Amino acid sequence: RALEQLGRTGTWLNRGFLVNNTAIERTIEEVAAACTLLARQKHGALIVIERQTGLQDYADRGVPLDADVTRQLLATIFYPNTALHDGAVIIRNGRIVAAHAVLPLSDNVMNSSQFGTRHRAGLGISEYSDAVAVVVSEERGVISVAANGRLVSNLNGERLRKVLTDLMRGRTSTPRATTSEATVT
């Protein structure tokens, strides 16, 4: 964790998320559209967007991919009973670099009837890195975002786009809840 912190502080080590706004917007749009579809169908998903802290160790434990981020590909990966649907997708610089990745689980105690392993993994990666994790609940069809060790739930597609845009452009360090959202810390 100390090396991850060091990597975040030096601009000479800064890998950045994406270099142009068009790529950021396209990635956010595709992730939001895919999550909206997956939530409606109650197909679980865990999508991790790398920011400054590299996630190569986690990507190496998954199935390597090198693909554009599209809503169709994300929906296919997380379709139930397919080979890659368990685990996380890791996105770096507008590309899906790995699927079926195993992430650290959060030790943060949450209501187990409302939040399962995907939520614990999304929250866990946000505790160990500056990554943003989007979680779609298989049981409830609810979209959540984890960042900086905080989880915001009950997002719709429009609100997800807004939260991701703010986080990826550095406007806010953690998701902010509105009155219709439940926050777990």
Helices and strands, with pairings:
Elements lengths: L1 H8 L11 H21 L3 E5 L6 H5 L2 E6 L2 H7 L10 E5 L2 E7 L15 H12 L3 E5 L6 E5 L2 E6 L1 H12 L14 E2 L1
Parallel strand pairs: 1-3
Antiparallel strand pairs: 1-5, 2-4, 3-4, 5-6, 6-7, 7-8
Helix pairs in contact: 2-4, 2-6
Estimate the helix proportion, in percent: 25-40%
Shape: globular
Order the strands across the largest sheet as they lie in space: 2-4-3-1-5-6-7-8
Strand element count:
8
Task: Write out key terms for the chains shown.
disordered C terminus, single chain, globular, 185 residues, alpha+beta, 22% strand
Structure commentary:
With 185 residues, this protein is of the alpha+beta class. It has helices at residues 2-9, 21-41, 56-60, 71-77, 117-128, 157-168, and strands spanning 45-49, 63-68, 88-92, 95-101, 132-136, 143-147, 150-155, 183-184. It has an eight-stranded mixed beta sheet, with helices on both faces. Strand 6 (143-147) and strand 7 form a beta hairpin.
